[in-house]
Write a structure and sequence with these properties.
single chain; alpha+beta; Outer membrane efflux proteins (OEP); 4-stranded antiparallel beta sheet; 4 strands; 10% strand
Length: 478
Amino acid sequence: MTPKLGWLCVLIGLAGCTVGPDYRKPVPAVPDRWQAGKEATADLKPIDPETLKTWWKSFDDARLSRLMEQALGGNLDLKMALARIDQARAERRGTRAELFPTVDAAAGAQRADNPFPGLAPGIRYNLFELGFDALWEIDLFGRQRRRLEAASADLEAAQEQHAQALVTLAADLARSYIEYRSLQNQLGITRANLDAQRHTLKLTERLFDEGVGTRHDVVRARAQTETTEAQIPALEGELTAVLRQLELLVGQQPGSLAAELNEGGAVPVAPGRAILASPAETIRHRPDLRIAERQLASATAMQGAAIAELFPKISLSAFLGLRNTDIENLFKSAAFSYSTGANLLQPLLNFGRIRAGIDLAEAQQQEAYFAFKKAVLEALRETETALTRYLKEEARRQTLARSVADLRESVRLSKLRYNVGVISFLDVLDAQRALYVAEIELARSEAGASTNLIAVYKALGGGANPRPPQPETIQGKS
């Protein structure tokens, strides 16, 4: 083996070295089962992972599914997330390219002279060159490879951020749609009660004119009618605000969904029995936890890159081309030239800059580690809370449904008893008021149960990947 070949083998061997800590993916400690599901374990079962990806279909609402398809294609947050993936991918390509030599086309002209009188005359000459310059910094201690590891982790984090944007979008859209349907139902209940109260007011006024009723009955009936009527503008304002939110989520102009959604519909209800995924499954499915884990991997890699700054840097350079002192003879065979060189740079005095960079990278790695641990706790808290709220609201909805049925019967019986003179008209008004309040509460509870179920799906990481992300052509770029 020649000496040159021996040195080359040594350099290649050294180029495989890396300094700094090697990343090991942390395994979070999670409980075996949810606290919220202990009381209802017999009624709940683990959800199928494929069903979790498109959980909104379990509501069996065609308009909701159609809105979701529109949002997946038009939501601007998703498009920004895709753009961030492109940015991270470009950053990784740029970092990877630093591992390889750079070759530049070079052209130059020099003139050396000694213009100062009284000094020994120097050499006077012209030098013209045309060729290729190459430079390669050998990554002896893994500085560039650690940076490439960090860039790869950043790219994976950006992809998970897109998945998290999908989770958030699906939950926000379904929640807004359910709120819109609930407000429509509340508005319908209020208008129906207003019509009934107006009818009662006319009846009370007629009885008063005939001398059968009292003025107190008329005033009470009118006050109740006006109170109910005052609820309508507030509900209409909330309805419009939620409609604008839906249009924003699907990426459309205000007013574009009015015709499609103006026709009322029932609040979507999904069977919530298959929701009790295990804590370990939840940790695997949630994109925000995968984002935190990838950010920890990136910070760990950058810690190694900072440590590598302490070690020498070796670079090789070369020139291949034409050189001549006479430009007219530059392209003759005698002008062919090549040169090679090697440089070693060892940091000696930098006033603590490198050590400060290492300390900074270590602190950032510690922050990323604690951020990951906090994200795990937040995920467990969010899921426990969502499960508890859903189970409690579902029990409340069932009780309210029975209460509404009883109050409707109470109103019917009150009218019969009033007609035969057994009770006063105030009793009828009280029964109607109680029914109206219970109907509104039931409508809100139905929406609340569905909304809390959506929160459970979101906490379980549902909707993270309904379909692979597709790049979009932007201003002629594909």
